[in-house]
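Subject: for your reference before the review

Hello V.,

The reviewers asked for a structural picture of the protein, and I figured it would be easier to keep everything in one thread rather than splitting it across files. Below is the amino acid sequence we used in the manuscript, unchanged from the supplementary table.
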Amino acid sequence: MRLRPFASEQEYSDLKEQLHVEPNDYWGAWWHPRAKTKKDFEETGMLNADKYSTFAVERLDTNELVGLEEYGGTASGRCNAWIGTFISREHWHNGFGIEAKQLCLCHIFENFQVPRVEADTLENHQRAARGLHLCGMKFEGRAKKYHYMDGHYYDIVCYRIFREEWEQQPFRHGVKRGL
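And here is what came back from the structure prediction:
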């Protein structure tokens, strides 16, 4: 798979709608007003170091979009960046989320001067936590009762990786750049 910029605002919006057709099992319903999406895309193509950036996650064998990878906090002078991964339900359990995170970590550490990258997920989202761990990220802490969904409060578990730790990751050598 690969990360690439979105070809158009329409491609980006269509994928967002596909990802959020039904409430996510872990995060619940998401709402992204089309007007804001259009404005964000027109301004930067969803690649903006001062705010946040979004890549399409695309299968190389079929050229099918399977999700998106977001990141932010890369502007000059920032101390930490963040990543977030959304994979379409029909593509779960194929390793696309792990690979997207690994590619994004390489992109961030190779192109920006941040010393750390962080990510978080819900306490009950074990697959996401495992994926973060497989990317070399380490558990850093917990934000109690941070997310509310379906009448319940959920803790957020936080992960991080420092540049020095990323430099020791074996996946760095297998990542193909510039495809």
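For the response letter, the relevant points are probably these. The mean pLDDT is 85. The chain has one domain: 2-171.

Happy to draft the paragraph if you're swamped.

O.
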